[in-house]
Write a structure and sequence with these properties.
single chain; 209 residues; alpha+beta; Sortase, Chain: A; 2 domains; globular
Length: 209
């Protein structure tokens, strides 16, 4: 191979390698910056959501809860007020009032548009499908127990149904006040990475105590 051709090939390879490293560096910088910006945006959104939901929750509690089953006091938005235990799959997790991304990082979220255990209406909990949260939902069976230990009492529920639903099927997570129903859901597939459009929902009813 002619000497000048070898030099040309060598120079080309070096140029490609340099260009590759520069490109990687640029993308890394963009990712770091964008990540910081996204995190700030999520934090801000969460703060706004908390302010808005606090007002909505107060109105909800005043207008829709049966006076005979009203709690003496309600937790602040974002506060831990209970634990959820599912012996069948060795789950024992904290429950927080609210459903922001920040809350779900810490444990199980309680939809602020639903009732509390003991109030006689729909209770909606949600959690990630990660290994340390609800990854093992597929192992649950009808009649398995779910135990909710709150700051004001302990409540036991028995699973009577499990459904795989689409994220837009909100009628599958009905909020009503005529019957106490605990609905706990997570994203599906359980080993999914990233955004999922399906939800795996477990439905449970109170066990007479």
């Amino acid at each position: 191979m002619p000497k000048f051709l070898r030099k040309t090939i060598k120079a080309t390879i070096i140029s490609v390698i340099v260009a590759l490293f520069v490109t990687i560096a640029i993308f890394a910088c963009i990712n770091i910056f964008a990540g910081a910006q996204i995190e700030q945006a999520i934090t801000l959104a969460n703060r706004v959501a908390i302010d808005i939901k606090q007002e909505a929750v107060a109105e909800f509690q005043e207008t829709t809860i049966n006076e005979n089953k009203k709690l003496a006091s309600y937790p602040d938005y974002g506060a831990k007020y209970a634990t959820i235990e599912i012996p069948q799959i060795e789950v024992n997790l904290p429950v927080y009032f609210g459903d922001t991304l920040e809350i779900l990082k810490n444990g199980v979220g309680h939809s602020s548009g639903s009732y509390f255990p003991g109030e006689g209406g729909s209770i909606i909990y949600m959690g990630h499908n990660s290994a340390d949260v609800f990854r093992r939902f597929s192992d649950l069976k009808i009649d398995n127990e779910i135990i909710i230990k709150t700051t004001y009492g302990e409540f036991k529920y028995k699973i009577y149904d499990m459904q795989l639903i689409n994220e837009k099927e909100i009628d599958k997570l009905p909020v009503q006040r005529d019957k106490e129903i605990l609905m706990v859901y997570t994203c599906y597939p359980f080993n999914n990475i990233g955004y999922a459009k399906q939800r795996y929902v477990v439905y449970a009813e109170p066990i007479a105590q």
